[in-house]
Amino acid sequence: MNATIADFSASFPVASARLEGFIAAHHFERPTLVIDIDRVEQQYRALAAGLGPAAIHYAVKANPADAIIDRLVDLGSRFDAASRGEIELCLSHGAHPEAISYGNTVKRASDIAFAHRAGITLFAADAAEEIVKIAEHAPGAQVYIRLLVEASGADWPLTRKFGTTRDTALALMAQARELGLRPVGLSFHVGSQTRDPAMWASTLDQVAAVWAAAEDAGFALDLLNIGGGFPAFYGDAIPHPTAYAAAVMELVTTRFPEGIRIMAEPGRGMVAEAGMIAAEVLLVAKKSEDDLHRWVYLDIGKFSGLAETMDEAIRYQFVTPHDGEATGPCILAGPSCDSADVLYEKRPVALPLALKSGDRVLIRNCGAYTSSYASVGFNGFPPLDVVVI
Ligand SMILES: *Cc1c(COP(=O)(O)O)cnc(C)c1O
């Protein structure tokens, strides 16, 4: 499996015809995310093929739609849950408690107790207080320690908030053992939307060094959680998911002992390409006659589903009824009365000159971190509607 990045763009075009067909045939009163559930299954199968023996724990926060959880339960997926709500969601769809990891390193004590009662046995931690909470409310549980890793080049880095350093990790394992927990392994997150598998190498080197230090200190680790980071197609070429996952596993197996349990937690890579948003242009305006940019205001913005445009980190692709005609640079903004609700300004978006209010705009490959990031209704704009086909 040695597919290059170039192979992918040639052989794996974005298969969104079914979504576009459904959207073309329907009228929507408000911005709507349409999910092609069979596409989620395809992604699951493609990732599983590349991950081989590694267990997939779907990161529920990427998109918690009932139909997605249902389908993944049917396929035998496991789940990475971050809260009591996500655990209850997975359980209500028939996920086995042993198939759910409680992966948030910041947990309410009563939620740990709930998870323990529900039969969940695997918890993440990166701080001494958390180990104490887990020991008290989930006695005997397995814990893995999340490591702080250096930025890898991901489009959406996750490096600072979570994780701990090598020496603290070793101290936490000792503390866990002393308190009757089972320190079973390590986790990390390479950063979301890590487009090139080669970017994993230095992160895996860092984690392998901590693993070796833990073994030297007498801990018998047997679980490596490689987290998420599996990319989606937003316009820059990425490998096919199977090739990508296989390349990551190759980097993993050359650095870690044979026979250990490996888990991966894809979120974006599982669902982003299964979703398309149907939105509408509310207004096209110029600030002055000679303004070089048009302002295009959509009926969806930062607070109603497009939060990942923060710092213009994730750049979505747009489809309009005038594609193929002459374009000009646009500043793209959401509908709310908050001036932070500007989607793309530093790097304007080329949109057709003919674009006008009332036109439908489709946003490609946005099945991840959109509906789950929408506010309940900031400024009276409703959260993103979700339709599963
Ligand atoms: C959000 C998250 C993921 C999913 O990350 P993606 O980049 O979307 O695949 C995986 N693991 C943990 C612990 C997370 O918080």
Describe this structure in words.
- The protein starts with a helix and ends with a strand.
- Helices cover 30% and strands 21% of the residues.
- The protein folds into 2 domains: 38-271, TIM Barrel; 273-388, Lyase, Ornithine Decarboxylase, Chain A, domain 1.
- The protein has 389 residues and is of the alpha/beta class.
- 48% of the residues are buried.
- It is built from 11 helices and 16 strands.
- Bound molecules: pyridoxal-5'-phosphate.
- Pyridoxal-5'-phosphate binds at residues 59, 61-62, 80, 103, 189, 192, 227-230, 265-269.
SSE blueprint and pairings:
Layout: H1 5-11, H2 17-24, E1 32-35, H3 37-51, E2 55-59, H4 66-75, E3 78-81, H5 84-92, E4 100-102, H6 109-118, E5 122-125, H7 128-137, E6 142-146, H8 166-178, E7 182-187, H9 200-216, E8 223-225, H10 241-253, E9 261-264, H11 268-271, E10 275-285, E11 294-298, E12 318-319, E13 327-333, E14 342-352, E15 360-363, E16 385-388
Parallel strand pairs: 1-16, 2-3, 2-9, 3-4, 4-5, 5-6, 6-7, 7-8, 8-9, 11-13
Antiparallel strand pairs: 1-10, 10-11, 10-15, 12-15, 13-14
The structure holds pyridoxal-5'-phosphate (PLP).
